[in-house]
Amino acid sequence: MNDSSYVFKLLNKKYNKLFDLIKKCPENKRDVVPEGFKNSIHWQLGHILYSTENHVLRLSEQKKVLPESYQTFFAYGTKPLDWKEEPPTCDLLIEQLKEQIDYIHEALNGKLDTDVKKNFLEANTIEDLLIYNVSHVSEHLGVIFSMIKVLNK
């Protein structure tokens, strides 16, 4: 399979939607946790970046590139209220997300049918990991969309 595989097209579509959505949120509101939400846009960006590295790159045995400190900011169960130090900026996270999607294409192109070790996602192949990731990003896009609507009121 090549880079024109359907799962890569879906992945690109979701990340492009993410980048478009972020442009609709004023920079001074990206750290606000809107009423009814647990996290900020800033956290959402970092969480997508961090979890993609762990769910796609780590499980497909690709090199990790993010600092270990990202776990304390963006792993499941974390929230901005618990941050004890300054997290990476939103602009840096956006840049890293763009680099990450390019890296995924480069590292995984032609390897979609490669088997992966037994894992908590119950994925069998790299393509399964990417399908999960598309779903995960889609879920967060819905949350981000809702947050932006609240923040822009």
Description of the molecule:
This protein is mainly α and 153 residues long. It has a single domain, classed as Four Helix Bundle (Hemerythrin (Met), subunit A). The chain has helices spanning 6-23, 41-58, 70-74, 90-108, 126-151. Helix 1 packs antiparallel against helix 4 (90-108), helix 1 (6-23) packs parallel to helix 5 (126-151) and helix 2 packs antiparallel against helix 5 (126-151).
What's this entry about, in short?
The chain has 153 residues and is mainly α.
Helical run tally: 5
Biggest beta-sheet profile: none
Question: How many domains, as an integer?
Answer: 1
How widely separated are the two ends? Answer: 45 Å
Number of separate strands: 0
- Radius of gyration, taken over Cα atoms and rounded to an integer in Å: 15 Å
Backbone shape: globular
What fraction of the residues are assigned to beta strands by DSSP? Answer: under 5%
Order of helices and strands: HHHHH
Topology, please?
Elements (H helix, E strand, L loop, with lengths): L5 H18 L17 H18 L11 H5 L15 H19 L17 H26 L2
Helix pairs in contact: 1-4, 1-5, 2-4, 2-5
Features:
153 residues, 0% strand, Four Helix Bundle (Hemerythrin (Met), subunit A), mainly alpha
